[in-house]
Amino acid sequence: MARARRRASGFFRDFQEFALKGSVVDLAIAVIIGTAFTKVITSLVENVIMPLINPLISVTGKDWRTITISPGIAIGQFFGAILDFLIIAFILFIGIRALQKLKRQEDAVIESPLSDPKLAAQERLTGALDRLNQTLEARNNQVL
Prior knowledge:
Layout: H1 2-19, H2 22-57, H3 75-111, H4 117-143
Helix pairs in contact: 2-3
């Protein structure tokens, strides 16, 4: 009985360590934010974009999302899901591209202090001297 209790407590301890790792918590947060983001995008598509597009692509005065080929095959809903996906993918693309552009601007700002050629040469020389010093110390330690 004691062995089973220790095994169970070890299992729960392992599960707790796994569940509280940063990557698992980050993934959970990402899923929650993604769900909320999906609701926002779905609302944007259904309430803003589609009322503008529906008059252009309506079939015989009906909403194109209600089109069915035969009983049970709702082709309009399928095309609507594809359109939702494309809009979400496009918005994510724009967001990620903007973040990458900001990241590149931050990198450019960090590199700008070394724009003076004398400072850049001094940094390269200092780095070369440090590497040379490490090499000489390593050779002295091998000899000893």
